[in-house]
Write a structure and sequence with these properties.
10 helices; binds thiamine diphosphate; two-stranded antiparallel ribbon; Rossmann fold; binds iron/sulfur cluster
């Protein structure tokens, strides 16, 4: 396997993606977003100054696959940690990489205050609608009626509230200069997500303010579906509720 990876590297040119196998489950949406982020860092020449601040969850491994510096924050605290780091070291390029559980449950207050402050960092939320790492429990982003380990009869808004729409909440914040929701449901969506990451990174490079992207991705293991079915569900159900769009682009 190692030889095969080396051959790939020499064929396509060495990138900051390390020659390691992902610990993500087969078909996990994190694999796609991690690669898109690495490609954007490489293409924009940010490698030497990039610092990834990861949360707790499967996305907390994303920095294992990139040859850049990283900070492992405590659960939900990545945006606060990233804000402090950026203020202390403005020459660094600072982004967070967090799951929907990490960012929209325990970390929601940190996110909203960081966004409102408008410090030029980039926050990435990878929304697979469940707590993936701990076994597929309900998160704030679980869809209505969705069966999870903690909602065996499906999410009921009367009991559990409604699936949380994070970028919609952040729209009015003046410190937020780039705000988008993307998906990895199919190849065109993945290409669009890659472009969106570069735009969000540009927002920080031009020192314009806070940038946020939510990515709608499948977690085949937590959703208890095959890889194929989990992508079909992502395309039909998740994207139907979490509508991909650029909410705000004020990057000049
Ligand atoms: C303070 C604290 N509470 C709970 C946990 C257990 N825990 C680990 S990962 C996780 C949630 C991960 O879900 P998400 O952020 O959606 O990421 P995913 O694994 O789906 O990528 C939780 C609750 C913890 N590590 N620390
Ligand atoms: S549990 Fe889900 S989020 Fe975690 S690596 Fe597996 S597929 Fe990805």
């Amino acid at each position: 396997m190692e030889n095969a990876m080396e051959n790939l590297s020499s064929k396509y040119g060495k990138t900051l993606m390390l020659d390691k196998l992902f610990s993500y489950c087969p078909g996990c949406g994190h694999g796609i977003v991690t690669r898109l982020v690495a490609e954007a860092i490489e293409a924009m020449g940010l490698r030497e100054k990039a610092v990834s601040v990861v949360g707790i969850g499967c996305g907390g491994f994303s920095h294992h696959y990139m040859d850049i510096d990283a900070i492992e924050a405590t659960h939900g605290r990545s945006t606060s940690t990233a804000t402090g780091f950026k203020l202390a070291s403005p020459e660094n390029f600072v982004f967070t990489y967090q799951g929907d559980g990490d960012m929209s449950a325990i970390g929601l207050a940190d996110l909203l205050h960081a966004a409102n402050k408008g410090v030029p960092i980039t926050a990435l939320m990878i929304n697979n609608t469940v707590f993936g790492m701990t076994g597929g429990q309900m998160s704030p982003a679980t869809l209505e009626g969705q069966v999870t380990a903690t909602t065996p009869n499906g999410r009921d808004p009367k009991l559990h509230g409604y699936p949380i729409l994070v970028p919609e909440m952040m729209r009015a914040m003046q410190g937020v200069k780039y705000l988008a929701r993307e998906s990895v449901a199919d190849a065109p969506a993945i290409r669009k997500a890659g472009k969106s990451i570069r735009r969000a990174f540009e927002c920080q490079e031009k020192n314009q303010g806070f940038a946020f992207i939510e990515f709608i991705v499948p977690c085949p293991t937590g959703l208890k579906k095959s890889v194929k079915d989990s992508y079909a569900w992502c395309k039909d159900q998740m994207v139907d509720y979490f509508k991909p769009q650029v909410f705000k682009d004020e990057v000049e």
